[in-house]
Amino acid sequence: MEYDGILLGMGNPLLDISAVVDQDFLNKYEIKPNNAILAEDKHLPMYDEMAAKPTVEYIAGGATQNSIRVAQWMLQFPGATSYMGSVGKDKFGEEMKKNAQDAGVNVHYYEDETAPTGTCAVCVLDGERSLVANLSAANCYKVDHLKRPENWALVEKAKFYYIAGFFLTVSPESIQLVAEHAAANNKIFSMNLSAPFICEFFRDPQEKALPYMDFVFGNETEARIFSKVHGWETDNVEEIALKISQWPKASGTHKRITVITQGADPVVVAEDGKVKLFPVIPLPKEKLVDTNGAGDAFVGGFLSQLVQEKPIAECVRAGCYASNVIIQRSGCTYPEKTDFA
Asked: Could you report the average pLDDT of every consecutive run of 10 residues in the chain (341 residues)?
């Protein structure tokens, strides 16, 4: 099988500013543990405060970019993955591009001249992460960039697409273009619920994209919020996964499969009106470094097998492997080689 450019991701490239913080820091900036939000004015001073911490690390991030980098690492085939998003014309943008290219990803960034590269504060407390994203240039992606011949060529070359729900806040128009192309050409389109606020405040563009989704990823918190927003009156993750999988589809070529992770609890997979549970790899608490990127890594591992047309059970196994590797390291990073067998 030809793997060159087989998987394309689009999203918000962010430079993660990751540091260990204390409860006072979270209280000061009114941050909930294990949540993901967009930065407001009150959060802006925290970036400098974190940059001054001795434990600070800078890592190329953004949900989709994390997943694509992990898929690339698992595939070990240079250029198997491509990625688009918007960065600023600055040193952070250059750093991120170098980081992604070194990882083997074919990045085609839109370079915005008016805003700095987006950053994400990753506040780590007791291994749990809280994310505060300051999108800046990531918010400036234009559908015109996607339509450029050299970029649309990446869309035409790919057979699988993955876009995190966070991109709904930036360019729903770009998402629709790719989704419609996938449906018309018998390709696989997947998205992620990504965060409770996406399900709540970006319901309309999410619902517009949903009929095109062949795979829907998410975690148990996002699934429950999705259920609440749609008045389903159930907190049962298995039931919610099933309902999402049965949402009407734009094209009948592929069925929809819903994949919901639940931290240390089993992964829920809903397809064909049935639910299967897959155990995750247990990890002793003392080996947990931080959970940042765990969900993204799961998706990356999953997609690395999906593009090879492996069975769903094998995709889940690879997802669990990848997230298990990532949570034992700082940020969404991984060793040079994978020992996934």
From this structure: 93 93 96 91 94 88 95 94 97 89 94 95 90 95 97 98 97 98 97 96 97 98 98 97 97 93 96 97 89 92 98 98 93 88 83
**Domain total for the chain?**
1
The parent domain of residue 157 ranges over: 7-13+61-117+135-327
CB-neighbour burial class of residue 23 (10 A; exposed 0-12, middle 13-18, buried 19+): exposed
Q: Within 10 Å of residue 337's Cβ, how many Cβ atoms?
A: 8
Alpha-carbon gap, residue 48 to 50, rounded angstroms: 5
Run of H or E including 17:
strand 14-20
The CA-to-CA distance between both ends of the chain, in Å, stands at: 19
Whole-angstrom distance, CA of residue 120 vs CA of residue 281: 28
Backbone angles phi and psi of 292, in degrees to 5 = -60, 125
320 is a domain residue: yes
In a domain? residue 335: no
**For residue 101, what is the enclosing H or E element?**
helix 91-102
Rg (CA), the chain: 18
Domain CATH number, residue 74: 3.40.1190.20
Catalytic residue (choose from 102, 214, 296, 339): 296
Q: DSSP string covering 215-261, please?
A: EEEEEHHHHHHHHHHTT-----HHHHHHHHHTS--S-SSS--EEEEE
In single-letter form, the type of residue at position 209 comes to: A
Quick check: is 296 catalytic? yes
